[in-house]
Amino acid sequence: MRFPVSCFSISMGFGIQTVLWKTLSTIKWLPFLHIPKYVNLILWCLGSLITFIMFITYIWKCILYPGLIRWEFSHPIRSNFFFAPWIACMWLTVGTPHAIATNINPIFWLLLMAPIILLNIRIYGQWLSEGRRLSESANPSTHLSLVGNFVGALLAATTGWKEIARFFWIIGLVHYLVLIITLYQRSRTAPVLPKGLRPYFFLFISAPSSASASWCAISGRFDMVSRSCLFLAFYLYMLLVVKINFFRGFKFSVAWWAYVFPLTSFANASLHYSLQVGNPAIQGFAVIFSFVACVTVFMLCLSTMFHIFWGTMFPNDVMIIPIEKDGRSDKELLAWTKR
């Protein structure tokens, strides 16, 4: 009951980490680090296992508590995380170790991109119609609806479908321009993101970073388009870092995993940029960004295991709390969530 769809941000974090370590193990100017390829294999197996467990858990929740699923699907923040499981699977597919497979079958793209296309039709359709207008529901987690297009373009380019990759990349770009302008022009009456969900602001970095890496895969080199996306991501990265006090003063929760995916995505794109430029300073910064991303996921893993052990990882949900305060019994609560 208390397992939110936002838990799939953990899967996204491990998925992009497999891609990062796969890139690190193949870079020729990093021999001094001696990155073994089996690290990518271990992370890929661990990420696949975690994603599988989360899929089973959430499917079980769908069967037992469909009322809560409908509420999450209509929530302006939670609804965006329905993209997360498919994004995680696509990152795991891109990060597949060479020991398992050297080529990716296009059937995987078809299976993983189909749910994202359906979600895109629903989300973007609401922006255009009289449904949930973007100006009223835009928040940092909305970037996930764009990241799905960029990661899908990256996977399509990896399988050799370059034209399809360009199609979804441009769809993501157009809607990203609309979203970023909307978020910058939010009025004072627009809904404010709760303090405990402030880590979602780091998702600002995820879209341009993913766009940079995907266009590099499409064009075959880190050209001006990829660089422009990376430079934008770097600007947003620094903008968030200097506001460090904005991200202090709230308890640990699943929302903290929103740090991992953007930081790792940016680190991966910066590594590809360093390969193209060949500047030692740029290469050093790319290693630093990769180190920050790896330390972040390590610390979050420790915190997550600690809170799971003490039973504080999944507290009462925002939908369950008001129901329990109404004085309803557990049986009445269960009956409501199953409707």
Automatic annotation (TrEMBL):
It holds the Pfam family SLAC1. It comes from the Eukaryota. One of its GO terms (molecular function) is voltage-gated monoatomic anion channel activity. Keywords: Cell membrane, Ion transport, Membrane, Transmembrane, Transmembrane helix, Transport. Belongs to the SLAC1 S-type anion channel family. PANTHER family: S-TYPE ANION CHANNEL SLAH3. This is Voltage-dependent anion channel. It comes from Ceratopteris richardii.
